[in-house]
Amino acid sequence: MGEFETPRDPDADSSALPKAVLHRRDGTLVRGFLRTKPDAQGKLRLITQAGEELTPDPTTLKAVFLVRDFDGLPSRSELQFLKKKKPADAVWVRIEFYDGEVMEGRVDFDLNALNGPGFYLALSDTQANNLGVYVYKSALRRFELLAAD
């Protein structure tokens, strides 16, 4: 698991670029070659199979899939090893702020925690003076997932 790998030269020949399929929120697909990986705002550059360069609006995209082959395997369903496992309500995390302070605790595992500007951290040290903390994501240097609760 890791980030998208693209050539160091963003103007490289498309044959040297990874194959990708853009899935738009409206259900349409765009097949092509990933010129640049998504940046901090989610913007990317793609060369379509027809040779057209696109810089799609990230708000119109559902996901970008790196693929081996543009045709795919329609009859194959993705493996779901954990299908029978109950989803976690919370996750244990370790966070580090830009000033070096480190904290551990539980974060509710929901879209509010993922999408918002911050999240509530229930601290692991129940004897501390602090009962909980609302953490601003922009103040974090590191966020580590330790375990599911």
Which features characterize this protein?
5-stranded antiparallel beta sheet; 40% strand; 149 residues; 3% helix; mainly beta; 1 helix
3D structure, described in words:
With 149 residues, the protein is mainly β. It is built from one helix and ten strands; from the N terminus they run βββββββαβββ. The strands form two sheets. It has a five-stranded antiparallel β-sheet with strand order 4-3-2-1-5, with no helix packed on it. A five-stranded antiparallel β-sheet has the order 9-8-7-6-10. The longest helix is centred in the last third of the chain and has 5 residues, at 111-115. It is elongated, with a radius of gyration of 20 Å.
Short characterization:
With 149 residues, the protein is mostly beta strands.
SSE series:
EEEEEEEHEEE
> In this structure, how is the largest beta sheet organized?
5 strands, antiparallel
Q: Whole-Å distance between the termini?
A: 22 Å
Number of helices: 1
Shape: elongated
Give the helix proportion (percent range).
under 10%
| Overall mean pLDDT | 82
Structural class, by secondary structure, is mainly beta
Strand content: 35-45%
Radius of gyration: 20 Å
Number of strands: 10
Across the major sheet, the strand order is: 4-3-2-1-5
Low-confidence stretches: none
